[in-house]
Amino acid sequence: MKFSKKSEYGLRALIELCETYGGRVLQRHEIAERQNIPVEFLEQILLALKRAGLLASRRGVRGGYSLIKSPEDITLGQVIRILDGPLAPISCVSKTAYQKCADCPYAATPSCPLQQAMGEVRDAIADILDHYTLSRFAHSK
Amino acid sequence: MKFSKKSEYGLRALIELCETYGGRVLQRHEIAERQNIPVEFLEQILLALKRAGLLASRRGVRGGYSLIKSPEDITLGQVIRILDGPLAPISCVSKTAYQKCADCPYAATPSCPLQQAMGEVRDAIADILDHYTLSRFAHSK
DNA sequence: ATTTTTGTCTAGTGAGTTGCTCAAGTTTTG
DNA sequence: CAAAACTTGAGCAACTCACTAGACAAAAAT
Known about the structure:
In chain A, helix 1 (5-19) packs across helix 2 and helix 2 (28-35) crosses helix 3. Chain A has 2 domains: 5-71, Arc Repressor Mutant, subunit A; 86-133, no CATH class. Chain A has helices spanning 5-19, 28-35, 39-51, 76-84, 113-129; strands spanning 55-58, 64-67. Chain A is 44% helix and 6% strand.
């Protein structure tokens, strides 16, 4: 029941990018150094965040990455879903990636006892992470 | 951010064992058949739950497994921690298995921004799972 | 007492994921 | 053009997950 390094690194990188939001761009090695993240691995993460529309990048000599959305419009939930997939602890309670359990004897049944409990967990997690914005990270150093 | 099959199977097995609590014992193949769980894998799970003091077992001809504690004294949190380890989404916010992050630049700092958010998540998950008892599963079929 | 029926324990295994590296690009600027 | 940056894709070692296999131990039935 853990988040991956990818999510953790991604969030730490975004903390860094929040600091310079509106100002200059940050290069991958700057972020990597400040946050102790292997540069090439970080790159994959930044790319994923870029494809998801959170970051912009510029190549070339004075290139780098910058936030494309305001920190208060980015939630931890968004970021984690991009990098780690759905938040739900079991897929039959995911709202973004629902999948009927193949082997569960309650799958056909109107109510699965596990599903109820796990649904509560999912909602609690999503409730926090989908309302927690990057702006709460700003100037936290 | 998912629970393992181990936890899921374990909980489903316990649902089954709740049904017969106080009555007869259940054999591994009975549980396995009713819940569609590979029998040898289930065994490992039952053994782990036994070692943790939740189940009793009897060998031999009319052997099997039975709950040793009342369903209302067993929480989902306990079970999941036995089978899946700590609930915390990152180990620096675990209460049962805390570990300082090696690479995080905020590790030395009084407050890590991620830690705060993840701590909330951990508490929310634990709050639900540590108060959700197996008795809420009883006679759910 | 022996056989059968069950649980106990340890080890192994194949597939997939995680965390990371490398190399060969392409784009931009000086 | 050369240097500095991002881009893309392939590759890989280590680990974990889900499961399997097999030898063994105990209890009951015969």
